[in-house]
Write a structure and sequence with these properties.
Blueprint (H helix, E strand, L loop, with lengths): L8 H12 L1 H6 L2 E6 L2 E6 L14 H19 L6 E11 L7 E6 L2 H14 L1 E12 L4 E12 L7
Antiparallel strand pairs: 1-2, 2-4, 3-6, 4-5, 5-6
């Protein structure tokens, strides 16, 4: 699906993420899906993303996992003023990532509806995201769990 300017939601959110957080430009993060409850990003295997043993650096895997929560909020609350907070991320590294990585999480249906309803009713909403990190052969190299909070800006007195 594309908007009136012919830009996909993925391309629009990728531009926004890279503009707001230049690290995603540097690592070459691509937003591959933000539709139908499927959130997916890809980070290429390139020298700037590698560690001392020629695998994708742990920090890159962490960042590519954590960004999915931001994409959930940006896509579900698009057009609404909010600020996003990551409250906790835990990641388990299972195998060396010797190729580009894909991070993926599911957050749709009733969970997405409840998140949006809580945000509208109370001015904030929390959610947990489970992320799988796979190499280019589809092998799971890491998994992460993260807790997030979206909150409407507080009104200031004046």
């Amino acid at each position: 699906m594309t908007d009136e300017q012919g830009t996909s939601p993925e391309a629009r959110l990728q531009r926004g993420m890279r503009r707001t957080f230049p690290i995603y430009e540097y690592v070459g993060l691509e937003v591959r899906s933000v539709q139908d409850g499927l959130y997916r990003c890809f980070v290429p295997f390139q020298p700037g993303n590698m560690n001392h043993i020629a695998t994708i650096h742990a920090a890159i895997q962490w960042a590519a996992s954590e960004v999915l929560g931001g994409l959930v909020m940006m896509s579900l609350l698009e057009g609404a003023p909010f600020f996003a907070v990551v409250k906790k991320v835990s990641i388990e590294f299972k195998r060396p990532a010797r190729s580009g990585i894909t991070t993926e999480a599911l957050f749709g249906g009733e969970r997405a509806q409840r998140f949006r309803a809580d945000f509208e009713e109370t001015g904030e909403a929390e959610f947990r995201l489970e992320v799988v990190v796979r190499d280019e052969d589809g092998v799971e190299v890491a998994c992460a769990e993260a807790d997030y909070l979206a909150r409407k800006p507080r009104k200031t007195g004046g």
